[in-house]
Amino acid sequence: MATNTFLKFRETKSLLVKELIRCRNKLPKSLYYLADASIQDNNGNKIVVRFYCKK
């Protein structure tokens, strides 16, 4: 397979706060605040966590 057919960026699923709560103990302590956020907003919509980490 030619290398130009591979995706340049891998798409990953954005996590819900509800999903982060289950694995909070695996997060670095500096990111605990993400798992401590509200699970849903005032309208009942689930809150999604998205962030970009530069390397």
- H-E order: EHHE
Mass-distribution shape? globular
| Helix percent band | 10-25%
- Which band does the percent of strand residues land in? 5-15%
Count of discrete alpha- or pi-helical segments spanning 4 or more residues? 2
- Summarize the main sheet: 2 strands, antiparallel
Low-confidence stretches: none
Note the gap between the termini. 27 Å
Strand pairing plus helix content: what structural class? Answer: alpha+beta
Question: How confident overall, as mean pLDDT?
Answer: 80
Number of DSSP-assigned strands: 2
Radius of gyration: 15 Å
What's the arrangement of strands in the largest beta sheet? 1-2
Task: Report what the structure shows.
With 55 residues, the protein is of the alpha+beta class. It has a domain at 12-49. It contains 2 helices and 2 strands. It has a two-stranded antiparallel ribbon with strand order 1-2.
Keywords:
single chain; alpha+beta; two-stranded antiparallel sheet; 2 helices; 2 strands; globular
Present the secondary structure layout.
Layout lengths: L14 E2 H6 L9 H4 L12 E2 L6
Quick overview of this protein structure:
The protein is of the alpha+beta class. The chain has two helices and two strands; from the N terminus they run βααβ.
